[in-house]
Each structure stands twice: as C-alpha cells, then as structure tokens.
Amino acid sequence: MTPTIKDVAAYAGFSIATVSRAINAPDTVNPLTLARVREAIETLNFRPNPLGRQLRGERTRVVGVILPTLSNPVFAECLQGIDELASAQGYRLMLMTTQYDAQRERHAIDTLRSHRVEGLILTVADADTHPVLDELDRDGPLYVLMHNDTKRRPSVCVDNHRAAYDGVRMLIAHGHRRILMLAGTLAASDRARLRYQGYAQAMHDAGLDPAPPLEVDFNAEELAPSVLAHLTSGAARPTALFCSNDLLAMVVIRGLRRVRLNVPRDMSILGFDGLAVGELLSPALASIGSPNHGIGCAAWRRLLERIDGRRASSIAGDEATPLALRLPHTLRHGATVAAIAHEPAATLASVR
Amino acid sequence: MTPTIKDVAAYAGFSIATVSRAINAPDTVNPLTLARVREAIETLNFRPNPLGRQLRGERTRVVGVILPTLSNPVFAECLQGIDELASAQGYRLMLMTTQYDAQRERHAIDTLRSHRVEGLILTVADADTHPVLDELDRDGPLYVLMHNDTKRRPSVCVDNHRAAYDGVRMLIAHGHRRILMLAGTLAASDRARLRYQGYAQAMHDAGLDPAPPLEVDFNAEELAPSVLAHLTSGAARPTALFCSNDLLAMVVIRGLRRVRLNVPRDMSILGFDGLAVGELLSPALASIGSPNHGIGCAAWRRLLERIDGRRASSIAGDEATPLALRLPHTLRHGATVAAIAHEPAATLASVR
DNA sequence: GTGAAAGCGCTAACAG
DNA sequence: CTGTTAGCGCTTTCAC
Q1: Do B51 and A139 touch (CB under 8 A)?
Q2: Pairwise CA distance, residues B65 & B117, whole Å
Q3: Is the confidence at residue B84, as pLDDT, over 90?
Q4: What local confidence, expressed as pLDDT, does residue A34 receive?
Q5: Which residues have C-beta within 8 Å of that of residue B329, sequence separation ≥ 6?
Q6: Residue B277: which of A51, A84, A277 has the nearest Cβ?
Q7: Phi, psi of B320, rounded to the nearest 5 degrees
Q8: Model confidence band, residue B313 (pLDDT cutoffs 50, 70, 90)
Q9: Å between A17 CA and C2 C1'?
Q10: Angstroms from B307 CA to nearest CA on chain A
Q11: Helical (H) or strand (E) element with A32
C-alpha cells in the first residue's frame, strides 16, 4: 500500500541501493540519476520507513518522555519546551505518564527502552530511591531528570532547598512569624522534602520554630476539618502558608474563602512553581517560580549533548558539565502575600 | 549490547522460532521448554524489540497525537485522557505540536505517517480547508479529530454553535443587551467561527444586534487601546463579554482590572472551555464547559473502534456511529457573570 | 557511479 | 512440539 524503496527503485529504473544513496548521500550519485530518483520519490509520494533504518542499527531519532501527569501545567510547560527543540531537530517524542506511581514509572521506562529510544527525559517521584535509574546508569539509554532534585544523577531543576528558603525568608521579611508549610500527595517526593528542609532552615535561621508539614488532600472540594483546625486555631494561628506547589495554593485559597477567611488579610499564601495562571488570579498568587519551559529546554539540550557525546567518543566522560544543573528560581511577588505589622512576641498570645 | 531473540535462543538451547512462540503463543510450546525459555529471558533481561515485529508487518501499537500547543490546558487535558486509555491498552503515543500552523500540521502528519502509526488523533486549525485530511481519508492511517467541529470528518467535540448560543442566551437572561464577542488568534479556526455564529444567532433571536467579533492579542500584558476603546465607549459600552476561550477571558479580566474596571460589576465575562483553573479564580469564571478529558477519551475509543473495525472487516463501513460525535457541553455558572437591572431601551442612551 | 547481497530482530508458513 | 527458512524496509560493504 504505502510505497517502499523497492517501488521507487522499480519506477526510477535503478536498484534500491542507488535509491538509498540518493536519499542519504546525494552527492555520491550521478546528478541525472539523482533527478530521476527524486522524481520517482515525488510521484510515488514515498517516505522512507524509519523502522527499516532503525532496525539496521541506525539511530531511532525517538526520545521518550515520562511525566507524572499533564494535569499539572508545570509538566505541560516542560513538555512544551522539550517538544519545541526536539521537533526542530528532527526528533520524535514518545510520551508516557505515571500518576506519581513508582510501578508505572518502571513500566514506562521498560516500554520506552524496548522501543529503543535514544534517550529519556523524565520526572520521577523520588530519584534517590529508584533502583531502575541505577539500571539506566549501567546500560540503559541516556537520560536526564527534570525537577528531581538530586546531585547523584543527571538532572535539571531549581535548587529547591534554596528556593524554599528564599521564599520563606520573604514571608519572614514581611513580618510573618507563624508560618506553616502545606504539602500535597507529593509529600513522598524528593523535591517536596527539600522544600520542607528549606522552609525549616529559614525558620530556624530566623529564630523561629518550624512546624511539621501539613498534608492536604489535593482533590477535595473543601479543606478537611483537621486542616482547618490547624489554620484557625486561635492565638497560635499561622499568618502565612507556604504551599509546596501552586495548584495546592489555589485549592487552599478557595478552601479558605469558603470559610470566610480573606487572603491576604487573614492569611498570606505563597506558592511554588510560578504557574502563569497564578498571575491571572486575584489577588495574584505570590510564588517561587521555576522556569518550567526553560527546564524542559535545558533537559533536552543536556540529553542531546550526552547522546552526541556518547556517539563522538565512548572514552571521554564529559566531566566539564556537572551532573546536576541548577537553574535560577525567581521570587514572584503577588498580592496573596501581605505585610503584617509585627507585634512583640509577648503580646502575641493575648491577641485573641 | 541489548540481548536479541537469538541470544535468548542460544542461552536456552532452542531455536529463535521456539523463543518467539514462547513469547507470543505460550500454550503451543512444551511447558518444560517454556520454562527454560522464560528463565533465559529473565536472566538476560530480554525485551522483544517492537521494531522487528513492526517491520514484519505487525501492528506498531503506536498512535500519533497532534495538538496545537500544550500551553493551553484544554489540550493538555485531552492528552491526559487519551494517554490514560492508550497506555492501559498497550499503545504508545507519539506527540507533536503545531502552534496552530498549517504547515507544521502537514509536517507532523507526514512524520507520523512515516513512522507507521496505526492511527492519528489530532486537532487542526481548520478541518474543512485542509487538503491533507482528504489524503488521510484516501490512504492515510485512520484518524479522529478533536475539537474540530465539522460534520464531514470523524471528530469528537461539543456542538460549538449551540454551546455558544446557550451561553449567550444565559447572558441575555441575566439582563445583558450589549454583548460583545472577543476572539484570540483563533479567529481563523473552525470552532471560533462556529462560536461566533452561535453568538450571532442568540443575539438575533433575542432581537438584538450582534456586533462583529473583536480580535484580542493573546500574549499582551495589557489590553490594546483599540480594544479598550471598544469596551469603554460611553453609552454603547457593552455590559458583557463572551470570550472565545477561557485563557482569553482570564487575560481580559486582568486587562480590565488594570484600567480599574471591576468584574462583574462593570462588566460580565463568560469564557469557553471550562478550564478547571477557572473555578479557582475569584470571582470564579463563568464558562461554557467542554469535557476535555472526556473528549480525549472518546477520541481514543473512536479511533480504536475504527482500527479494530478495519482489522475485522475491510468491507463493512460502520455506518452505525455517526462521523461526528457531539459531546454535551455544560454551562458553568460563575461570579464573573452578574445580573443586570434591565432598563428600558429608551433610557439606555442617556445613562452616561 | 551503480548493483548484488547480507543482515538488523522478529514472525509466520512449512516441514519434520 | 520444534526447527528451518523467507522476508518485512532499509543501509552498507563489496564487486563491477
């Protein structure tokens, strides 16, 4: 049905070898022959079947992308960045999502490997405790992690610890003392952990007591009573919340609104991710921004470097570039964070 | 490097044919043999190379997905829906984006075809005037359109005309008379056109004059002066805006806020898409909802039906299911649309 | 400058 | 039940 190289050869009156050369090394064939072959290709509307090439041991020009979900714009933005560069460079993307499930992560990696992808760009729940990544290091295709914050593996992300630290310091600079950190189902993820450590460090450095992170159900319409209790508990009530990501922050804002708490008057909110949509909220969401699109692009570039590097020389480890690439984060100010008049600690207890 | 079926055969002490059978038809080989082969597969960590299978004329189990962009959650949500079903059924997705560019659409289709995808799920700018789709009808892989609203081709979407009609009627029911439709760069798209027609029809049926659609630059930080002029032009000032999609609506709301116009007091806003994030805004965005996730799922199911159908019988056209599948839209109420006290038409002119 | 032929990994007759 | 063999579409020696 779809024409093959044989059809072209027959039509043009040459051998398949010549057709192949006409396609892949045009300057090694007689110009007249070339013209005739090209005409044949044109009229038959022939497209070389990559499968044949690939099988022959060539590069597949396909890279795999594994993401937790596309419902979170963070990952959609990354993917957008990857896709722009990849398609410009003649690569195809094979996509799989995992819903943060370690088993699905493994399955995705296996599947993509079997498809002989040349490389893998992925975000896993926890990069440090993932045996399958060790396998990849050994004999799998080259890979680059996105967002996973680990020094041990090739990765691109922001410095989550520092980013969280900076964000919480900003809250403190605004006069907040009782600051709580909220985390979603990501609690088990490497980046959530580091963000919590950043929070704790910032609190500690300011002579404040970090509180344990509070887990919040992401999908609930309203905030759970247990959570609300924490947020409205009289004198010890927090004045600011640091949310481990923007989606969570938005859910929390809605939840607070339902119980007639005003943001930022009653509670300041700081998110993490810098989702574009956050700026469209009102009040605009203050957030620690990570350059998602840029992370996608950088991950692509790193992967390609490594692929080309491997191709060029199996000897030289390119120790020039560090394993873990840290992109700068930004502090996006927004009206969800308000300054608070600082009251002497002594009077705090008596406020309510 | 990666083991092949030959390695397994050698290791297990059988022929490659037996290994192949052990994998694809385990019940046709001696249990003892099977066990030995499986052991070999296990220890060598062998994964059959799909490329070999595919080349042999088998199904590739890969389908292509072509979307305008992933920056718009509408498409990310669709993709999420597709991916969930596809991966559950053992299919892989090859993804390409087009940025609404017809040339890139063609290129994506060509590329994916050359990869011998079994089917294509895609959203194009304009489904009616796209010659490449005719080619697909003739001899391409099976395909299903998403969001493209055309009766002539296999497609899944909401009834854009009716959806817009319903939305605008709702605005009218809230007392609005001077209603403007805003469209983004999508003005050239089939669905934007139909949405405008729905708007115009609703206006007409209510004895009101539809205004020509107003084009708005999507990416601008602020609304263009020409647009603002339209929105604030004295007595004839519209009281409600129907935006051709939610992202646009959110940009417009921000633009209005910058010039101190309050939504919904000074202006009601109705979007289109029903993005989840719209509900998190405040005021919550009223929107005509299309079930994006569901559209993705439905598109997948339709594609698979068609693939299986073709496989089962090349004779029977399954005329049972209509070409164009219309999913029900919803009208999501939100605080961005407020009722307006209706004033007699005579006094309207003198209000300002 | 061109063609013949081998082989990539796999499946599917066809024999035994 | 198992092995032999041809061939999917293509690239790549090796001859001519």
Answers
A1: no
A2: 10
A3: yes
A4: 92
A5: B158, B159, B162, B163, B166, B288, B289, B290, B291
A6: A277
A7: -65, -55
A8: low
A9: 8
A10: 16
A11: helix A31-44
Q: CB–CB of A114 and B73 under 8 A?
A: no
Coil/strand/helix, residue B335: coil
- B293 contacts: CB under 8 Å, gap ≥ 6: B77, B78, B80, B81
Name the nt closest to B53 by C-alpha to C1'. C10
Q: Which two tokens stand for residue A143?
A: 């890979």
Shortest CA–C1' contact from B116: which nucleotide? D9
Q: Which nucleotides in chain D lie closer than 7 A to a protein CB?
A: 1-5, 7-13
Query: How far is Cα A271 from Cα A243, in angstroms, rounded to an integer?
Result: 5
Distance C6 C1' – A57 CA (angstroms): 14
Q: Do A116 and B80 touch (CB under 8 A)?
A: no
- Single-letter amino acid code for the residue at B149: D
**Cβ density class B246-260: b for 16+ within 10 Å, e for less:** bbbbbbbbbbbeeee
CA angle A23, A26, A31 (to 5 degrees): 120
Tell me if the bond preceding A264 is cis, omega within 30° of 0: yes
Order the strands of the A268-273 sheet from edge to edge: A214-215, A179-183, A240-243, A268-273, A286-289, A330-332
Q: What is the pLDDT of residues A30-48, one digit of tens each?
A: 999 999 999 999 999 898 8
For A127, the 3-state DSSP assignment is: coil
B254/A279 Cβ within 8 A: yes
Which residues from chain B sit within 8 angstroms of residue A94, using beta carbons?
Answer: 62, 92-95
Nucleotide nearest the Cα atom of A30 (by C1'): C1
Angle at B147 between CA B331 and CA B115, to 5 degrees: 150
Q: In this complex, which protein residues place their C-beta within 7 A of any atom belonging to strand C?
A: A 13-18, 21, 28-30, 32-33, 52, 55-57; B 4-6, 16-17, 20, 23-24, 47-49, 51-53, 55-56, 58
Q: Between A49, A60, A76, which is nearest B76 by CB?
A: A76
Residue B68 and residue A145: Cα distance in Å, rounded? 26
Cα separation, B187 vs B137, whole angstroms: 26
What value does the mean pLDDT take over residues B332-352? 66
With vertex at residue A76, the alpha carbon angle to CA A72 and CA A82, rounded to the nearest 5 degrees, is 150
Amino acid at A338: A
Of A51, A113, A281, the CB nearest to B281: A281
pLDDT in tens, A178-232: 999 999 875 568 899 999 999 999 999 999 999 999 988 877 777 888 888 888 8
**Cβ B275 vs Cβ B73: under 8 Å:** yes
Q: Which residues contact A271 (CB under 8 A, 6 or more apart)?
A: A243, A245, A246, A248, A249, A250, A278, A285, A286, A287, A288, A336
Residue A152 and residue A162: Cα distance in Å, rounded? 18
Helix A73-88 to helix A292-312 angle (10° resolution) is 40
Count CA atoms closer than 13 A to B174's CA, side-chain side: 27
B35 touches strand D (CB under 7 A): no
- A253 has a chain B CB within 8 A of its CB: yes
> Is A28's CB less than 7 Å from nucleic acid strand D?
no
Return the structure tokens found at B223: 């609304």
Average pLDDT for A92-114: 93
> In the beta sheet, which residues pair with residue B272?
B288
